[in-house]
Design brief:
The protein has about 350 residues and is α/β, with parallel strands linked by helices. About 35% of the residues lie in helices and about 20% in strands. It has a 10-stranded mixed β-sheet, sandwiched between helices. Helix 9 links the parallel strand 12 and strand 13. Helix 1 crosses helix 2, helix 6 runs parallel beside helix 8 and helix 9 runs parallel beside helix 10. The longest helix has 15 residues. The radius of gyration is 21 Å and the shape is globular. Bound molecules: S-adenosyl-L-homocysteine (SAH). The site of S-adenosyl-L-homocysteine has 18 residues, from strand 10 and strand 12.
Amino acid sequence: MKLLCDLTLEELKTLLKEYGQPSFRAKQMMSHIVSGRELGDMSNIPKELIAKLKEDGWRAIGIRIERSFTSSIDGTVKYLYELYDGNIIEGVLMRYKYGNTLCVSTQVGCAMGCRFCASTLGGLVRNLSAGEILSQVIAVSALNADKDHRGVTNVVLMGSGEPLDNYENVTKFLGLLASENGLNISKRNVSLSTCGLCERMIRLADEGFTPVLTVSLHAPFDEMRKKIMPVANKYTVAQLMGAAKYYFEKTGRRVIFEYSLIAGENDTKECAEELVRLMKGFSCHVNLIHLNYVKERGLKGSDESAIDKFRKILDNNGVSCSVRRSMGSDIEGACGQLRRKYIQENKKE
Ligand code: SAH
C-alpha cells in the first residue's frame, strides 16, 4: 500500500513534483495528512491531483479506528485499529494532568516470546511501516484534540511488538513524529520500550536518536531471565546493563527499567538485592509493574505486600523506583490482550 503518511516532507515534495506540482503543495498536503484527513477531504488541493493520486493507489493514512473502549475507572481509552490489509492492532490513550499519552504498536504480533505477554502468542505477523505507526498517533490525536489542546502530547512505543526488531521503520517514525511540519511532538515526550536488543540500543544512541529508553528487565539473574524472556539466551544481564549505560552516556537520558513482578518467581528478597547491586551507581529508574493476568499464560502477579517489600529494599538502598499505577484494568489493558480477544470473537461469528 502506498501511504502518503510514510513520507517525509522532502519525499512528499519529490513525489508531488512528479505530478507537476509546486513545492508549497507538499506543505499544504502534509498539514491535511497529520490532521487525519483522507485524500477526499483535502479542501484546498486540486481535484485532478487527488484523482490521479487515488488512481495510482495512494492513500493518506494507513489505519482506521475500528472500535474504542473507555475505562469507567480512569478514562483510559483502548483503541482497536484495522490496517488496510485487514490486520488488527491496538493502542491505549492514558489521560494525565499534564496531557495525553498514547501507547503505540510497532508490529502486528511479536517474535520475542516473553512468557507473560499476550502480544507474542501468535508470533510475528508483520512489521508496521513508519506511516502505519504514525497513523495511530494521527487518528487518535484528531479524535481527542480541541481548540486549546493537542489530542496526544506524549507517545510511548510500548504497545504490541518489539520496536528495535523493526528498527528502520521505527526510527523513521521518530523523525516523522518530531517533524515541525508534521505533528511536531517534542523528542523529550517520546519513550521507547525494548526487551533488550543490545546492538540496536547502541545503534540508536550512535545514530542520534534520543527517546527515553525503557528496558524490560524482569529478572536480575541470567538463568531466571532466560525462563521468562527468550531474548536472555542471546544477551546476558551484564551485556544489557552495558548497553543501557552506553545509551545514558551517549544521550544523557536516564534509562528506565521495567520489572513486572511474578509471584514466587522474580519477587524474592534475593532478586531485589541483586537488582540493587546491578543499579548501584547508575543514574536510572526502576518501574515496578503489577503483572497483568493473561489467561493463556497462567502466571500470577505478586500481591501488594510482596510488591511493597520488594520496593522497600530498593528504596532503602537508594535505587530510584516507583510502582506503576495500573490503568484501564477493566478494558483488557495489557499488551496484546484486546487484539487477541477481538480476533477470537470474530472467528466465532
Ligand atoms: N517489546 C517491548 C515493548 C512492548 S511490551 C518490550 O519488551 O519492552 C511493553 C511492556 O509491557 C514491557 O515492559 C513488557 O514486558 C510489559 N508487559 C507485557 N505483557 C505484560 C503483562 N501481562 N503484565 C505486565 N507487563 C507486561
